[in-house]
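Regression report. Comparing outputs from two consecutive submissions.

Submission 1:
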Amino acid sequence: MKIEDEIQQKSFKSEGHKAQINILYTANFLSVKQTAVFKPFGITLPQFNVLRILRGQHPKPATVNLLMERMLDKTSNVSRIMDKLEAKGLATRKQCPNDRRSVDILITDAGLELLKKMDVAMEKQQIGLQNLTEQEAQELNRLLDKIRD
């Protein structure tokens, strides 16, 4: 459905303004869909993002700084997210043996197993991107990267 119909707005200041509104609206649309996939697993999008980063580092530990650098949402509170992941038994924090000021963060076996289950659920979930061809998805990625340059 066209953005004009979705938000019931007939005109925009410019095509650039329309694109900006469309990107924000679509990002929220995708976030809502993603949240629905995560809900049965008791995981939020920021928690999933941290687990995904930790899985990519596994078996090496990560640091809070590394997590903050790689987070999709740069305003996320990594310490609070880690508190919740530790409480769920999905990640652990230990003092770094080489640097007592640093903390090593690792994903647990339970965290790895949860991500496997979530990967399957996400593959089954259709969130709109299946409407794009591989070439269209590649072009969209190029354009989005260009916006951030």
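Submission 2:
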Amino acid sequence: MRNEPFRAPVRKAVIPAAGLGTRFLPATKAIPKEMLPVVDKPAIQYVVEEAARAGILDVLTVTGRNKAALEDHFDRHWELEQALERKGDQVRLRRVHKSANLGNVHFIRQGEPLGLGHAVLCARSHVGDEPFAVLLGDDLIDEQDHLLEDMIAARYRYGGSVVALMEVPENQIHLYGCAQVEAIEGDGDVVRVTSLVEKPNPGEVNSNLAVIGRYILDPSIFPVLEKTPPGRGHEIQLTDALVEQAASDGEGGGVTGVIFRGNRYDTGDRLDYLKAMVLLGTRHRELGADFHAWLLSWARSEEASDGTLTRHADLAR
């Protein structure tokens, strides 16, 4: 057990949102990828709601050019609210209010797209000398799961930094940061991270534990990031800084992993984005039952079974 200073509460979150969203072009030519709707909310709102459920109400979003829509979304829209009030449309008015009342959402520009590690470093003056969460907007965690809360609890027990891990097929591990771990006796899915490799080459690692987009970071990560040289992709990789943290016995050192076995939706991938729309759509309080019934009906239809889909896919390429 580490000393009491490592039990400081996690009160702030950082959401890196400066990416160009090239995998979703042309949809993201004029719309930030974080504002693409997942059912009836933009993807980034799910992430801010997740932070709020974990008791984190101070959120810094690190943006780039053409991201003004993010600020508009979390701001009050007086004209729209007044129009809904005049119509007596309380349901939609509550939805609009919710996005502006999730907490204190701040914004800062990254300036140059120098990687995730650099985006985190941009948050230093806001975070100060406190542990903080980093939530990637591409990864949506099902609201029925409590990954962030489990990670905060692991930080409270062991100090240092905490990463979220998920088992993936071995032929996909090259798409992620990969963690080598040791078991912690008596702590189930909480493990000690001994090494990290960003997007390893085939045969480079013997682990299938991928780092997914949730972190609890000790503030000692900042001086490490300051001297971390560009790595894979010529970007400052957060993974590289965490490798040094994992090997450190100093204050704030050590990296713990929480193995996540719940539902994660990678909305940065077009196919997974569509899957997220279907899964979350079927759970929607208002639309879910009707949408689920339609899906079942469509799955039994001639269109779903006669190869029409394949022909349409060929035409859409």
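Expected: both submissions complete independently.
Actual: both completed, but the second showed a warning that disappeared on reload.
Relevant detail on submission 2: The longest strand covers residues 190-198.
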